[in-house]
């Protein structure tokens, strides 16, 4: 189990000089609203591409260029945030893991930018981090699973397939046997951060998602599962598969779908 997968604003404030902070909001928000001092801006749209690698991964060269410009070193501790409960920042972190950044050095700011903004200083000044020569590496263990793996897991009593979309989407069509866990169920709307750990574990247990079982995650385009993946990792779930193709690839390939 990795420590400090999800970190507080106070945790970050104590380590601002020791970590690379990535703000994935749009540039106008980064500049106009303000940001965490020293943060680099890597807007969400810049690391999502249908012309990149599998699913919506941006491609190795694009990722290397983005992280080099942002001043990220190959073994830096990275803290990412957005202003949308962490779902876009989580996507950045998962992308980093899939491209070989050490997962124990990837952190999500709990409560998004608002958590920082409530208690800590912000700035409108653009930072100019020293560029690095970031290089993608093969991860020691990749959570990626492909269409065939998910297909073969249908009906496997030892695997829980989790649909992280909202209930209406789930009702319209989902993978056979999948359980529905809207990613927003894990977020406290008031704090914008994660619900308390005991509550998170209760929600997951009720959904039949056990920490000692195999879990496969999907949504439409692998954005929402990024947040759920980070939450499960923070809770010590060891066997979590990340279906990058998600329902987009599943339906394109004629995978079976059932309705509620």
From TrEMBL:
An MF annotation (GO) of this entry: transferase activity
Enzyme class, spelled out: transferase
The enzyme's E.C. designation: 2.8.1.-
Sequence ranges assigned to domain Rhodanese in this UniProt record: 15-125, 155-259
Superkingdom assignment: Archaea
Protein's recorded name: Sulfurtransferase
One family name in Pfam for this protein: Rhodanese
Keyword Repeat set for record: yes
Organism: Halobellus litoreus
The entry's keywords: Repeat, Transferase
Key word Repeat present: yes
């Amino acid at each position: 189990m990795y420590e400090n997968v999800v970190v507080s604003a106070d945790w970050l404030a104590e380590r601002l000089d020791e970590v690379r902070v990535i703000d994935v909001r749009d540039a106008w928000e980064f500049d106009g609203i303000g940001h965490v001092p020293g943060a680099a801006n890597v807007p969400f749209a810049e690391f999502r591409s249908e012309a990149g690698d599998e699913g919506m991964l941006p491609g190795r060269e694009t990722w290397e260029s983005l992280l080099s410009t942002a001043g990220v070193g190959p073994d830096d501790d990275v803290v990412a945030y957005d202003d949308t409960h962490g779902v876009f920042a989580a996507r950045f972190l998962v992308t980093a893991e899939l491209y070989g950044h050490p997962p124990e050095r990837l952190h999500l700011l709990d409560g998004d930018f608002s958590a920082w903004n409530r208690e800590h200083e912000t700035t409108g000044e653009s930072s100019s981090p020293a560029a690095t020569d970031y290089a993608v590496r093969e991860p020691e263990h990749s959570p990626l699973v492909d269409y065939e793996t998910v297909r073969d897991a249908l009906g496997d009593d030892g695997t829980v397939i989790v649909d992280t979309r909202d209930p209406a989407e789930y009702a319209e069509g989902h993978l056979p046997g999948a359980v529905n866990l809207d990613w927003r169920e894990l977020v406290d709307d008031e704090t914008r951060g994660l619900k308390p750990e005991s509550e998170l574990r209760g929600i997951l247990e009720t959904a039949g998602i056990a920490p000692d079982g195999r879990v496969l995650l999907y949504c439409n385009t692998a954005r929402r599962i990024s947040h759920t993946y980070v939450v499960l990792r923070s809770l010590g779930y060891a066997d979590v598969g990340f279906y990058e193709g998600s329902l987009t690839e599943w339906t394109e390939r004629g995978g079976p779908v059932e309705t509620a």
